[in-house]
């Protein structure tokens, strides 16, 4: 049943599913029961869509109440701060992912039906550019919650402080809010009684760096094998995964990689988690597709093991080491109940004591943003050119060399039609030249699997990594905005300086994390693109040397004439 409501804060929409609302604007809510902290309704301009439940208050009729009732928050939420609520997921993307999940089934003995799975929980579906929306925080005995008055923000500073309105009068950064980083910066994230994990950021010669893993390792992915279950009803591909530090293989399906990927998105808000290879609805068991997926899973795994933070994640270790079905379910459930995700992940970071001017940090991030945009455009351009070259190798080049070879064969046949004046040795040499060019055409068709395919695999990985950075940078921009707003309010006497300093301190944590991720990206980029270019040029040289050898052997046939 529709109900009337009034906006108590301004909200700026950022996608087509949402609508903008202005403070004090009259609204119509189609259903007063919010979904994941969002109402669906209509604003005064006739626009229909979603807006945060915590930004509005429902107007009760006088027959029911003489007061205005504040918006209803979902069970398990902390007050009415929208920082704790996820956005409505991109429905079309979510449905597409479910449709293309080629390894999804209801009978998997590796899966516990009673366990919450990402695909079944819209609040945990990936957000823009792959980063996960955060679920509402539920009560936890290890979390120290502080009592607070109705409709005031949960804050590490007393709720009586004048700073309780920080951020409310700003346009909302939707990914900034959904990720939980806003809640962290404003001091809304309750401290944990015990934090078992810790990730250190050191200060290197060029800026902040993730501290290297104390036990680096690698991991191989081999032997994709087609397997069946339930007497052939279900067919899937299994991969042998062998971490170097144990030497013991485990066997994983694509859906297990997908589970791990979603856990990583849910936990590591400020880290660019590489995208998994694409899913495919048909042709999943064709040899070329299986080989392509294996190559790209290897690149994905190499990036995971080389990342100082992702490689230490307990859920990743469970993925690599657990071979027992029962233990898998227990570890899977434990990973899905991990409390140090999203905003709480920021509490695990240990940052350097060195001072960094926030304006300098902002300029450095702007420089990286411009770099990432240019690199993304260049990667897409190279991907297009390489893909077009593959098409020519498989079609145009092969056909042209075959046509040239057939033409030489035709000349040779013509020379045999007048026997008294034909030269058998010359005819054989020309005929052999024709066959040589036909072989060269086949060599061109085979060559992409040795160089261009590998280049495209690496470019695809970096397209995914670069696609994550706009949202991650947006988190830092949102944090900068909170710092500037809090300082302005402090200067105007509307906020205690201690609270403004706390916001600035927590913004430093976000800034250090982003800079550390930027540094890791640059380091890995240099390694990966050096390897990619060396491998491509090496294969190109070897290819053209084989072509030269074919031509030289053919040329020697004419020396004997």
UniProtKB/TrEMBL annotation:
<dbReference type="InterPro" id="IPR014536">
    <property type="entry name" value="Snx9_fam"/>
</dbReference>
<keyword id="KW-0498">Mitosis</keyword>
<dbReference type="InterPro" id="IPR036871">
    <property type="entry name" value="PX_dom_sf"/>
</dbReference>
<dbReference type="GO" id="GO:0006897">
    <property type="term" value="P:endocytosis"/>
</dbReference>
<keyword id="KW-0472">Membrane</keyword>
<dbReference type="Pfam" id="PF10456">
    <property type="entry name" value="BAR_3_WASP_bdg"/>
</dbReference>
<feature type="binding site">
    <location>
        <position position="293"/>
    </location>
    <ligand>
        <name>a 1,2-diacyl-sn-glycero-3-phospho-(1D-myo-inositol-4,5-bisphosphate)</name>
    </ligand>
</feature>
<dbReference type="GO" id="GO:0030659">
    <property type="term" value="C:cytoplasmic vesicle membrane"/>
</dbReference>
<dbReference type="GO" id="GO:0035091">
    <property type="term" value="F:phosphatidylinositol binding"/>
</dbReference>
<dbReference type="GO" id="GO:0015031">
    <property type="term" value="P:protein transport"/>
</dbReference>
<feature type="binding site">
    <location>
        <position position="255"/>
    </location>
    <ligand>
        <name>a 1,2-diacyl-sn-glycero-3-phospho-(1D-myo-inositol-4,5-bisphosphate)</name>
    </ligand>
</feature>
<feature type="region of interest" description="Disordered">
    <location>
        <begin position="104"/>
        <end position="164"/>
    </location>
</feature>
<keyword id="KW-0653">Protein transport</keyword>
<feature type="domain" description="SH3">
    <location>
        <begin position="1"/>
        <end position="61"/>
    </location>
</feature>
<keyword id="KW-0968">Cytoplasmic vesicle</keyword>
<keyword id="KW-0728">SH3 domain</keyword>
<feature type="domain" description="PX">
    <location>
        <begin position="217"/>
        <end position="327"/>
    </location>
</feature>
<keyword id="KW-0254">Endocytosis</keyword>
<feature type="binding site">
    <location>
        <position position="253"/>
    </location>
    <ligand>
        <name>a 1,2-diacyl-sn-glycero-3-phospho-(1D-myo-inositol-4,5-bisphosphate)</name>
    </ligand>
</feature>
<comment type="similarity">
    <text>Belongs to the sorting nexin family.</text>
</comment>
<dbReference type="GO" id="GO:0005886">
    <property type="term" value="C:plasma membrane"/>
</dbReference>
<dbReference type="GO" id="GO:0000278">
    <property type="term" value="P:mitotic cell cycle"/>
</dbReference>
<dbReference type="InterPro" id="IPR001683">
    <property type="entry name" value="PX_dom"/>
</dbReference>
<keyword id="KW-0131">Cell cycle</keyword>
<dbReference type="InterPro" id="IPR019497">
    <property type="entry name" value="Sorting_nexin_WASP-bd-dom"/>
</dbReference>
<dbReference type="InterPro" id="IPR036028">
    <property type="entry name" value="SH3-like_dom_sf"/>
</dbReference>
<dbReference type="Pfam" id="PF14604">
    <property type="entry name" value="SH3_9"/>
</dbReference>
<dbReference type="InterPro" id="IPR001452">
    <property type="entry name" value="SH3_domain"/>
</dbReference>
<dbReference type="GO" id="GO:0097320">
    <property type="term" value="P:plasma membrane tubulation"/>
</dbReference>
<dbReference type="GO" id="GO:0036089">
    <property type="term" value="P:cleavage furrow formation"/>
</dbReference>
<dbReference type="Pfam" id="PF00787">
    <property type="entry name" value="PX"/>
</dbReference>
<protein>
    <recommendedName>
        <fullName>Sorting nexin</fullName>
    </recommendedName>
</protein>
<dbReference type="GO" id="GO:0016197">
    <property type="term" value="P:endosomal transport"/>
</dbReference>
<dbReference type="InterPro" id="IPR027267">
    <property type="entry name" value="AH/BAR_dom_sf"/>
</dbReference>
<keyword id="KW-0132">Cell division</keyword>
<keyword id="KW-0813">Transport</keyword>
């Amino acid at each position: 049943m529709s109900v009337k409501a009034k906006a108590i804060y301004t909200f700026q929409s950022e996608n087509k599913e949402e609508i903008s609302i202005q403070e004090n604007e009259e609204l119509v809510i189609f259903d007063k029961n919010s979904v994941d902290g969002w109402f669906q309704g209509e604003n005064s301009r006739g626009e229909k869509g979603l807006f945060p439940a915590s930004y509005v208050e429902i107007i009760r009729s006088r027959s029911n109440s003489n007061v205005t009732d504040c918006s209803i928050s979902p069970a398990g939420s902390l007050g009415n701060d929208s920082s704790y609520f996820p956005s409505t997921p991109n429905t079309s993307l979510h449905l597409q992912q479910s449709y293309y999940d080629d390894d999804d089934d209801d009978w998997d003995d590796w899966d516990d039906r009673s366990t919450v799975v990402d695909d079944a929980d819209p609040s945990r579906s990936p957000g823009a550019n792959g980063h996960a929306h955060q679920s509402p925080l539920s009560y936890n005995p290890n979390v120290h919650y502080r009592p607070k008055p109705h409709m005031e923000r949960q804050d590490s500073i007393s709720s009586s402080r004048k700073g309780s309105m920080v951020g409310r009068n700003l346009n909302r950064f939707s990914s900034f809010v959904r990720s939980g980083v806003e809640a962290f910066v404003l001091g809304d994230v309750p401290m944990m009684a015990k934090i078992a994990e810790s990730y250190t950021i050191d200060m290197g010669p060029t800026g902040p760096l993730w501290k290297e893993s104390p036990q680096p390792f690698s991991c191989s992915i081999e032997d994709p094998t087609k397997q069946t279950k339930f007497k052939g009803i279900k067919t899937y591909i299994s991969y042998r995964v062998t971490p170097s530090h144990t030497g013991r293989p485990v066997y994983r399906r694509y859906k297990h990689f997908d589970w791990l990927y979603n856990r990583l998105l849910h936990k590591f808000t400020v880290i660019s988690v590489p995208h998994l290879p694409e899913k495919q609805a048909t042709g999943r068991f064709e040899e070329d597709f299986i080989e392509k997926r294996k190559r790209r899973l290897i690149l994905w795994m190499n990036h995971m093991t080389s990342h100082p933070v992702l490689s230490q994640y307990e859920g990743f270790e469970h993925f690599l080491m657990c071979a027992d079905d029962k233990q898998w379910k227990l570890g899977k459930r434990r990973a899905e109940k991990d409390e140090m995700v999203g905003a709480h992940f920021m509490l695990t970071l240990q940052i350097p004591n060195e001072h960094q001017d926030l304006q300098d940090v902002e300029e450095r991030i702007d420089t990286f943003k411009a770099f990432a945009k240019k690199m993304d455009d260049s990667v897409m351009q190279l991907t297009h050119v390489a893909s077009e070259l593959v098409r020519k190798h498989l079609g145009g080049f092969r056909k042209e060399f075959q046509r040239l070879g057939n033409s030489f064969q035709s000349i040779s046949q013509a020379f045999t039609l007048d026997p008294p004046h034909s030269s058998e040795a010359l005819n054989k040499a020309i005929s052999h030249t024709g066959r040589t060019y036909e072989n060269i055409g086949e060599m061109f068709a085979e060559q992409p699997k040795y160089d261009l395919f590998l280049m495209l695999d690496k470019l695809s990985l970096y397209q995914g990594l670069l696609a994550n950075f706009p949202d991650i940078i947006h988190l830092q921009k949102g944090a900068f905005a909170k710092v500037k707003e809090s300082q302005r309010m402090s200067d105007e006497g509307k906020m205690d300086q201690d609270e403004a300093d706390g916001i600035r301190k927590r913004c430093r944590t976000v800034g250090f994390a982003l800079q550390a991720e930027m540094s890791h990206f640059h380091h890995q980029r240099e390694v990966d693109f050096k390897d990619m270019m060396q491998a491509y040029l090496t294969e190109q040289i070897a290819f053209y040397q084989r072509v030269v050898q074919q031509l030289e052997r053919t040329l020697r046939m004419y020396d004997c004439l």
